[in-house]
Amino acid sequence: MRNASCSVVKRCLDVPFSFLGLVFLAPLLALIGFAVKLTSPGPVIFRQTRVGLNNHPFTFYKFRSMVEGAEQKGLGYAVAKDDDRITKVGKYLRNTSLDELPQLFNVLKGDMSLVGPRPTIASEVAKWPPELRARLQVRPGLSGWAQVNGRNLLSWDEKLILDVWYVENWSLWLDLKILLKTVPTMLSRKEVYGADGIVRGKE
């Protein structure tokens, strides 16, 4: 993959589409924000430092779907399907992936892309062997090759291998294919949790 050309082409698509997405989805974003605030004390937006392009840290946004301070309770970073830290509204948001919509701001800012490996936390990146760090050669994405090919039914190692394959085989057509597969994957509500009903780590 030619990193420079890939970055330019992807950015030319990311900026207008993320902007239009934020404009058209503004009423939905406002409604979700109101529902989160009304039904659970704490901030509407969950913020966390994630690792992006070239190992650069950035602030990652999601609608808060769990009780405030959830990472210091229960399973910590892992989340179970029946986890009592998930709010009532949060359960619906997680099942439909609507909690991810604020990442359109990350895309517009240049922290993320519409398509790419999902951003994770620095402690996870530190565990990766050198051959898997190619994952950091592109901006992380709202959706990615691993997300439309098993998502949380995959192990972390399987996700990483698929992500590296994406980086090495990137094309505009591959990005379009992933975007087209993303919508039905979200609507199906499948693969949100692993086979054992748990999501481990951060995706």
In short:
By secondary structure, the chain is α+β, with helices and mostly antiparallel strands. It has seven helices and six strands; from the N terminus they run H-H-E-E-E-H-H-E-H-E-H-H-E. The protein has one domain (about 5-200).
Core attributes:
single chain; 203 residues; alpha+beta; two-stranded antiparallel sheet; 7 helices; 6 strands; 42% helix
General description of the model:
It contains 7 helices and 6 strands. With 203 residues, the protein is an alpha+beta fold. It has one domain (3-199). The strands form 3 sheets. The protein has a two-stranded antiparallel sheet with strand order 1-2. Helix 5 (122-125) links the parallel strand 4 and strand 5. Helix 1 (3-24) packs across helix 4. Residues 193-198 have low confidence and may be disordered.
Count the strands?
6
Our count of domains comes out at 1
Q: Which percent band covers the strand fraction?
A: 5-15%
Strand order across the largest sheet: 1-2
Note the gap between the termini. 23 Å
Mean pLDDT: 86
Main β-sheet: number of strands, strand sense, barrel status?
2 strands, antiparallel
Q: Segments where pLDDT lies below 50 for 5+ residues?
A: 193-198
What's the arrangement of secondary structure elements?
Blueprint: H1 3-24, H2 26-39, E1 45-51, E2 57-63, E3 79-80, H3 88-96, H4 103-109, E4 113-115, H5 122-125, E5 141-143, H6 156-168, H7 172-188, E6 198-199
Parallel strand pairs: 4-5
Antiparallel strand pairs: 1-2, 3-6
